[in-house]
Specification:
Length: 667
């Protein structure tokens, strides 16, 4: 079929942390570098002879202790001091906070066979003692006394009260940010704190109302330093709280504490921390109603993750059953086993459409038929996917004695997590351009092979020229019915076969730590990569954004859900597969019960994950023109939420256009 040897690898986009200079390691995103450079320039680097753990000791002695006498929970983050490490600092993960709530910090040190653990112990003791000394030195009031009480026994005994549990999460969370572990999640807080809450309430030590106050303060504290914590874009923070979830016996875990966290997120109405609700057909309808009420306010929470689909896929992938049932997510939505994983889930973004452009540009004569053409691409895609390993192995992780201390197998063996000491050492990649690829393939089959309206080479020539000399053809392609995201068996089959071919290319590949490579149908880069990509064959000019995750602006919600649920995800295709759509507040407000029924249908149908923007195009347009009227307007951008006013015009316009299209079809 005349394929030229023309491999350019334009379909890969690096996401991991890369060096900015010899002294600093930050996310390789232009927006992040520009925004954080003033902070970086005045940051004091704590570094000397010895190991990373030695630098933790130096840092603990150097950070400023900042007291807030109006809060009941203590949190300290000195944004002007940090440490330097050789290698890439682990991010996109969730620390196993249960280990310092249901047990104590000293027991972790005693379990560890790594000598560095004792240096981390020294650093934690130093920081803790300095905090207690500073709190005791200021004028006492009820809040200071509560902070001292909640910090009491933090290192040498398990938490005894609900507020103590929250306090321990805050203490170690602040240390992660202090040492530049970006995009770190918070785990199943309703699950790991539930026993403390129940016992406190039973003993009369706390009321539901008081617990809600504590959770609200907890969320507000974590929202502090919003700009400093943000990665590539403002709001890209990764502080995600996982709620609910299936138990191994088939029952569904939910509690009063689950509802309290949802209520607290609704009351503070911040873009971060955000909530991921693990849903199932076994969950109560009342919990879905509570989630719907929170969605109404437009805070971007909760994101839904379907245990009925995800847990079996995790087990099929090779995760132990007990671990699969305990899954949380890393920064956005990628499944992650906290306390047992290195898994880094946002290493590369693979551009499906650009990979296909490479295939198209290699033809120097017409293919014989559709089958030959289509199967040729699947073979090339498999080869493209097989090249991943060599690229991923370029990454050298920084030694991380703190995270290793919280990782079960690292404690048992004394092997650092950066060297493959954890139980799971998988790498995850994200993808864009699937909708362009799927719709274009459907169109090619129809107009080139079935109806023979145009030859493939003529079509490719017009496409490469961005249809400048054939606007009529572009309009025809744009007006052809879209298949991706619709009730279209051919589209489902195409996506499933593409994922299967991609999976075949990577399934036998191991990274240098012995882990597998995972991928998913979602990515944060649909705009950034799209505006650098060539025109497709379904109505998108070159340098225009791709569609978002699993979305179709011209599809009704049930159709989109049915499409996504019918896709067969291969063994490694578990790194986040997210339905994304817009819905107006009025639609939910006027049809609350119907919307709950829609969510129940979607869960039962079997979607993987789902997120939505609850905002009208009218509001977005007005906010763009009159930003001062909407200082707190929140939108979902990638796997996170952000303030609309913080976004660039490119993102604002994209969100507005998507909202208009969704309303046209669904309202």
């Amino acid at each position: 079929m005349g394929i030229k040897n023309n491999i350019k690898n334009k379909y890969w986009h690096i996401n991991w942390i890369i060096p900015l200079s010899s002294k600093y390691l930050v996310y390789g995103k232009r927006e992040y570098i520009k925004r954080t450079m003033p902070i970086i320039k005045k940051t004091k680097i704590i570094h000397g002879k010895g190991t990373v753990a030695d630098d933790y000791i130096r840092l603990a002695k150097a950070v400023d202790i900042i007291i807030n006498n109006k809060r009941n929970l203590f949190y300290n983050l000195d944004v002007n001091k940090t440490i330097i490490t050789k290698g890439v600092i682990i991010g996109n993960f969730t620390l196993d906070y249960s280990k310092i709530i249901q047990k104590d910090f000293y027991s972790l040190v005693e379990e560890s066979k790594d000598n560095e653990a004792f240096k981390i112990k020294e650093a934690i003791e130093c920081l803790y003692d300095r905090i207690i000394e500073k709190l005791n030195s200021v004028e006492n009031n009820s809040c200071i006394n509560n902070q001292l009480s909640n910090l009491q026994g933090m290192l040498n005994r398990k938490a005894e009260h609900f507020a103590e549990g929250l306090q321990r999460v805050l203490f170690f969370n602040s240390l992660l940010w202090q040492t530049r572990h970006r995009l770190n999640g918070l785990g199943r807080l309703d699950y790991i704190l539930n026993e403390l809450y129940v016992e406190d309430k039973k003993a009369g030590f706390i009321t539901r109302e008081k617990a809600l106050e504590f959770i609200i303060e907890f969320l507000m504290i974590l929202h502090d330093d919003y700009e400093y914590k943000s990665a590539a874009m403002l709001g890209d923070i990764g502080q995600i709280i996982v709620l609910g979830g299936l138990n191994p016996d088939g029952s569904y875990f939910e509690s009063e504490l689950t509802s309290l966290f949802i209520e607290a997120v609704k009351k503070v109405n911040f873009p971060d921390p955000k909530i991921l609700l693990r849903v199932s057909s076994k969950m109560s309808e009342n919990l879905l109603r509570e989630a719907t009420e929170t969605l109404k306010i437009g805070c971007g929470s909760p994101l839904f993750s379907n245990d009925d689909v995800i847990i079996p896929l995790l087990i099929n992938k090779g995760f132990d059953e007990e671990d699969a049932y305990e899954y949380v997510v890393s920064a956005c939505w990628e499944p992650f086993i906290c306390g047992k994983s290195l898994d880094q889930n946002n290493m590369f973004t693979f551009d499906f459409w650009s990979s296909f452009c490479e295939y198209m540009s290699a033809f120097d004569k017409e293919p014989d038929d559709w089958k030959t053409f289509y199967e040729g691409y699947l073979r090339l895609l498999e080869k493209q996917a097989s090249r991943i390993k060599s690229r991923l192995d370029d990454v050298i992780w920084a030694k991380d004695p703190l995270v290793s201390l919280f990782t079960e197998d690292c404690r048992k063996t004394g092997k650092d997590i950066s060297e493959g000491g954890s139980k799971y050492n998988n790498y995850g990649i994200t993808t864009v351009g699937m909708a362009s690829l799927c719709n274009s393939l459907v169109n090619i089959k129809k107009i080139v092979f079935d109806e023979k309206i145009i030859s493939l080479l003529e079509l490719e020539n017009d496409r490469k020229n961005n249809f400048k000399d054939n606007d009529k053809l572009f309009i025809k392609l744009k007006n052809m019915p879209k298949a991706f995201g619709h009730d279209d068996e051919e589209a489902v089959s195409i996506v499933t076969e593409i994922l299967k071919a991609f999976n075949k290319g990577i399934e036998s590949k191991k990274n240098r730590l012995g882990g597998d490579i995972k991928f998913g149908l979602s990515a944060p880069d649909y705009l950034k990569i799209g505006v650098k990509s060539e025109a497709d064959l379904c109505g998108r000019h070159s340098n225009e954004p791709y569609s978002t995750h699993i979305s179709a602006n011209d599809a009704v919600y049930t159709e989109l859900v049915n499409f996504a649920s019918d896709i067969s995800y291969p063994r490694n295709g578990i790194n986040g597969n997210v339905i994304d759509f817009f819905v107006t507040p009025d639609l939910i407000n006027n049809n609350s019960e119907k919307f709950v029924l829609f969510l129940k249908h979607a869960i039962n149908k079997g979607f993987y994950q789902m997120q939505m923007n609850v905002v009208s195009s009218k509001t977005l347009i007005d906010a763009k023109n009159n930003p001062d009227k909407y200082p707190g307007l929140i939108v979902r951008v990638w796997g996170f939420s952000a303030y609309f006013n913080d976004l660039s015009d490119d993102y604002k316009n994209l969100l507005i256009n998507r909202a208009i299209e969704n309303e046209r079809v669904n309202n």
